[in-house]
Amino acid sequence: MSAAAPQPAGWHDCRDTFSKTVEALAEADPRIVTVVSDSVGSSKLVNFRKRWPERMVNVGIAEQTVVAVGAGLANGGKIPFVSAAACFLTARAMEQIKADIAYTNVNVKLIGQSSGIAYGELGPTHHSIEDMAWLRLLNNLTLIVPSDPWETEQAIRAAAALDGPVFIRVSRMPVPDLPRSNARFEIGKAETLREGDDLAIIANGVMVHRALAAAEALAAEGIAARVINMSTVNPLDEATILDAAKTGAVVTVEEHSVRGGLGGAVAEVLATHDPVPMRILGFPGFLPTGSADWLLEHFNLNAAGIADAARQLLARK
Hints:
By secondary structure, the chain is of the alpha/beta class. Helix content is 38%, strand content 20%.
């Protein structure tokens, strides 16, 4: 993988927040342990290992085993944070996530690191743009896609407090802190970051920042776009989605395939309750080789592309 571009001032790698939060939780609760698949460095857990070597299990490059060990530790009364690259944690260990975690409803916290297209030039083998579609089928698995460092910390803390299986996507792409006037995180509750009655833009993860920028551009044209951060994909905040439908048009934006992810989840709600014109923005399928930034630009997952989709949708109202 090529060297990372310099991080803009005020932007943060959410993996750092993940590791600091897990350390803080571990200080207060001896049940907190970590399980990794040769991913100590990429999970930013080097300091955790230094402080509590006896509370980390490194199974090596064996994702099926990392999930199974996490399930065993949970059955023994521990609260395991199983951390590995999202692409391998889900694709290689889907059977174990299904049978050992979801079916048995054990208290394991799965952390999909470097999610979406964060691995860039390493290509489709390392992209994780199918994970939400696969995991959404497991109805009791809580799915969270945080948008920034603050929400990442809140999601990790909420997951630790919840008695049940959780999967959290943690991106390595630096992002700024989102502007929030009344910051409050609750699993299963969406966050309205900008009001608007002309249409609604529903996004999560790193795409929330771009959705806000699109709304700003639309505002300059007299278009009031509501921006909703749907960080929890399961359970889904259906009430907020149906309220968004009252604007008459909905755009969803995600760092994921257009099939089966956030857009699919929102479409299921609207199709069965209140159909309105809708656009699902994401990736069409296997992606060409390129940096994460280039891929987002190439597939118009930027402020300009989101704003253009909104304009096209409004033309259909």
